[in-house]
Design a protein that fits this description.
heterodimer, A: 423 residues, alpha/beta, 19 strands, 22% helix, B: 489 residues, ten-stranded mixed beta sheet, 25 strands
Chain lengths: 423, 489
């Protein structure tokens, strides 16, 4: 399935390899980490970045899209962002270095750089094979990140907010977040940056222990010249429940990969994503979800609004293992295309080896329903406003599922702003 | 919901062990030496008394094939094929162009009789009064006989083997051959272009509604032969044709290769209906033997308001790699794909369709039902795309699958690509088509739940089967009993 013939290295690929030569001495990590980095860059050197011939990158030809590498010089100062929700515990990382750590009681937070120097075994720097470009680039160049451990049984009332900020250049961040048995926590993951040319890779391992409950909200609003490559690796133990929410608002080339394995019976994953895409953005959400044990559930809903010359992608793969009987997985991907130059491609994929399961997927792509528009316009609402209302209704339905009124308010403001700029 | 006993029994009835077309016909045959080379291609071309341009065309295809790589993206696994260990030409010896049925080897006629295919023109299918089907029977590499030729030619319809057409209507063949599936479209299409030995050619002139169903039966008999047939169907402006295709092969331990190319061209207001019941030998329960069915089928709705409809019932073959597609080029053109794919034993199916919307107001509909049992794997793979200029493109896709037992797999890989805001695509893969309302309606009238489910689902499957012409519907009937409750996307 994954065939890619050997091609000469592109400028960006060559730059990655060369940059590694200059940087390797200054990157944090013990001898084992250096080996890991070395292996990662060797893999890029040998196989190159994935093209559309690699199934997982079918709609995001990274080799073609990642044309050049921005400089890796430490860029200018970045101002902290105000928290999405007042009272959040803010963890700030700027241009790849930790700026602020603030841990509530019941949570320990430390620097990934220290972890890499001490003992790599506690931190997974695994990749998903030769075509895992995000994992490989990140492993080669990771500078820092947060290691977060929520104690067993802890109930963290206010959100823990990660701010990953940049002012151009490169940023390679790795986080490891563990939610202990029976613990409850909410995480806000914010990716933001200036409009200077940038390349960021952010890899996060999120582990939920037995009976843990967590909400993870990623708000991606990086700069218009940023290539943002993110990867979330998730495992859910018995009876763990995760609500995962991703909002993509900007960026030039964006890829959000989610690799989730449901490992314990009774576990549940609720995945929601909203993409608001305009200009010539390219935004790709690729989900690979494995139901590996019996009696687990998941729902996935992706809503996208695409205008301008933007290209949206959603690839959603649900794998149901032979023993995973009674799996219930429901996936939907709905898209509104607002301009003739915009495009959306989707591949909702099911791979099922168990015979007593309920799995379904639905996908729609359409423009705004003329009848709906007519209904509103007949009541004196100007076309543009009517259109805005309908888009808002389409997206807000998902946002409102979040439950937290404060966060919903913040996200709806973002939505209004987007509509103003793109409507 | 797991499958009910009735369903399991039905599937067992058509399990690989029950293959009833596995007999072999002992008949003397004329074979080319094993292997593939320019000489073999020259040999085939000479045997077929082809004009020089055709030989050139084949050699060009061969040289392109040599530079191509075998595709590996499908979800199928098989040992590497040694393309030099195959016979590329095999013909029944007595077959040097019979003028009438009497000249045909009686052994051959018996074979077709065993298969239930009436070659004799006077014969009318049981129960189907006044209904006649013109048959082109292809045995190993050559077309044995084409029936009802005279009557068809009265209507202006050309229906003959493609080798005859190359000799008799070179201009038509030149104009349309490879115009839908280019020579280097894919590995197997290129191989087919180099070595195809026979197949059917249909030309329906402007405004003609083909007076009867046209049908081809393919039979691979010889050991170690590959069958590479080529079918080309052209419906001129306002024409209509319904074409049926059936396939069987003897039971053998070795794998045999079948790599066909089918091209359909529909001009303005024309309609082509193409139906297949594919029942190649699927191998035994352990996966020994069976046909590798690597087929490229594509229809081009070239004209305005044209329509191409594919219906397939896939039960045979060890491995199926097949995506009957429609290129919706003409404005207001329509493509349809109806499929029931049943895999059993160690069969592997990777099949689906492509609907490429290029013209304005084009529409397409995909209904696919996959049933996997035993240790088989059944994948639906489909692409629906709207070009930037394809205003008001519409697609509706539904694919359901059912698993029986926990050693098999069912997979769905749809690719949906919209590049026009007015395009409207809907893809649906639901657990079951049965709505609670329908079920309640039946049960409230005293029908037990299980029966109610069977009733509703059978009604739904029938919708696909009814797309088949009568003759094939009979053959597909045995699948109707299979209920699809508890199906997964």
């Amino acid at each position: 399935m994954n065939v890619q013939s050997k091609l000469p290295l592109t400028a960006a690929e060559t730059a990655l390899v060369e940059q590694f030569g200059t940087l390797v001495g200054s990157l944090p990590g013990n001898a084992e980490m250096v080996q890991l980095r070395d292996r990662a860059i060797q893999s890029i050197k040998e196989s190159g970045l994935p093209t559309r011939r690699v199934e997982a990158w079918h709609y995001t030809d990274l080799r073609r899209l990642l044309t050049r590498l921005p400089t890796n010089n430490a860029a200018g100062d970045v101002a902290d962002l105000e928290s999405l929700v007042m009272g959040s515990w803010r963890q700030v990382i700027k241009n790849g270095s930790i700026d602020t750590i603030a841990a509530p009681e019941g949570v320990s937070i430390s620097a990934m750089a220290d972890a890499l120097r001490a003992d790599v075994s506690g931190v997974t720097i695994a990749d998903h094979g030769v075509h895992d470009a995000i994992g490989l680039i990140n492993s080669a160049f990771v500078t820092d990140g947060f290691v977060v451990k929520v104690d067993d049984g802890a109930e963290i009332a206010e959100p823990i907010e990660f701010q990953t900020l940049h002012d151009g250049g490169q940023l390679h961040v790795r986080n490891s977040v563990t939610v202990g048995e029976g613990a409850t926590a909410t995480f806000h993951d914010r990716q933001a940056g200036s409009d200077a040319e940038a390349l960021g890779t952010v890899v996060t391992d999120l582990k939920l222990g037995k009976g843990a409950q967590a909400t993870w909200v990623t708000v991606q609003e990086t700069g218009d010249a940023s290539d943002h490559l993110a990867q979330l690796n998730i495992t859910l133990e018995e009876d763990a429940r995760l609500t995962l929410f991703i909002v993509n608002l900007s960026g030039k080339l964006v890829r959000q990969e989610i690799n989730a394995d449901v490992l314990g019976e009774g576990a549940d994953l609720q995945f929601r994503a909203v993409n608001l895409l305009g200009d010539s953005q390219h935004c790709d959400i690729t989900l690979s979800l494995g139901h590996l044990v019996p009696n687990t559930t998941s729902t996935e809903t992706v809503r996208s609004v695409v205008t301008g010359k933007a290209q949206g992608v959603f690839q959603g793969q649900i794998r149901v293992d032979q023993i995973a009987q009674k799996t219930d997985a429901q996936m939907a991907c709905n898209t509104l295309l607002l301009s003739d130059d915009a495009g959306f491609s989707t591949k909702p994929e099911l791979e099922i080896f168990a015979d007593d399961v309920i799995c379904a997927h639905g996908a729609t792509v359409a423009e705004i329903d003329h009848k709906h528009l007519f209904y509103l316009m007949a009541r004196g609402i100007p076309e543009k406003i009517a259109q805005g209302l309908l888009i808002k209704a389409f997206v807000a339905e998902i946002i409102e599922e979040l439950g937290d009124e404060r966060l919903i308010g913040v996200l709806e403001t973002r939505l209004d702003h987007w509509l103003e700029m793109n409507g | 919901m797991p499958a009910v006993q009735e369903t399991i029994d039905q599937v067992r009835k058509i399990d690989v062990d029950q293959y009833k077309y596995g007999f072999e016909t002992l008949i003397e045959s004329d074979k080319a030496p094993k292997g593939l080379s320019e000489d073999i291609i020259r040999f085939i071309s000479a045997k077929k008394q082809e004009p020089d341009w055709m030989l050139e065309w084949r050699l060009d295809a061969y040289s392109r094939w040599l530079t191509m790589e075998e595709p590996t993206w499908a979800r199928v696994e098989y040992p590497k094929i040694d393309f030099n260990d195959l016979y590329y030409y095999s013909a029944p010896k007595s077959m040097s162009g019979p003028k009438t049925l009497d000249e045909v080897d009686p052994e051959l006629l018996k074979t077709y009789e065993k298969l239930g295919i009436p070659l004799a023109e006077q014969e009318i299918l049981a129960g189907v009064q006044e209904r006649r089907v013109a048959v082109d029977a292809v045995f190993d590499s050559v077309s044995v006989v084409t029936t009802f030729k005279k009557e068809l030619s009265k209507a202006g319809v050309i229906f003959m083997s493609i080798s005859e057409a190359i000799r008799e209507y070179p201009d038509l063949v030149k104009k349309y051959l490879a115009s839908v599936v280019p020579v280097s479209d894919n590995y197997y299409a290129a191989l087919n272009s180099a070595v195809f030995t026979d197949g059917s050619f249909v030309y329906v002139p402007k405004g003609v509604r083909c007076p009867m169903e046209l049908s081809t039966y393919f039979r691979i008999n010889e050991k170690n032969t590959g069958q590479f047939e080529r079918t080309l169907i052209i419906a001129e402006e306002g024409a209509y044709v319904s074409y049926l295709e059936g396939c069987t092969a003897p039971q053998r331990d070795e794998n045999q290769l079948h790599a066909a190319v089918v091209e359909l061209v529909a001009m303005d207001d024309a309609e082509i209906k193409y139906s297949t019941v594919q029942n190649w030998y699927p191998g035994d329960a352990e996966g020994k033997g069976g046909i590798y069915n690597f087929v490229t089928k594509r229809g081009d709705c070239r004209g305005k308001n044209s329509k191409i409809s594919w219906t397939q019932v896939e039960t045979g073959s060890a491995i199926t790699w097949k995506y009957p597609s429609c290129i919706l080029r003409g404005d207001n053109s329509r493509g349809e794909f109806y499929s029931i794919a049943v895999s059993n034993g160690a069969q592997q199916i990777d099949s689906g369709t492509k609907m490429i919307h290029l013209g304005k107001n084009t529409s397409s509909r995909i209904i696919s039902k996959g049933i996997s049992a035993g240790k088989s794997n059944n994948t639906y793979r489909g692409r629906v795309s709207a070009h930037r200029k394809a205003e008001n493109a519409r697609n509706f896709t539904q694919c359901d699958s059912l698993l029986i037992g926990n050693e098999c797999g069912a997979h769905t890989v749809p690719y949906i690509e919209a590049n026009n805001a007015t395009a409207q695509f809907e893809h649906e893969a639901t657990t079951s088509k049965i709505s609670e309302d329908q079920l309640f309606y039946c049960m409230q009238r005293g029908i037990p739940e299980e029966e109610a489910i069977a009733l509703i689902v059978n009604g739904f499957v029938k919708e696909v089967i009814q797309e088949l012409p009568m003759e094939f519907a009979v053959e597909a009937q045995k699948l109707i009993g299979i209920s699809l409750e508890g199906s997964v996307g």
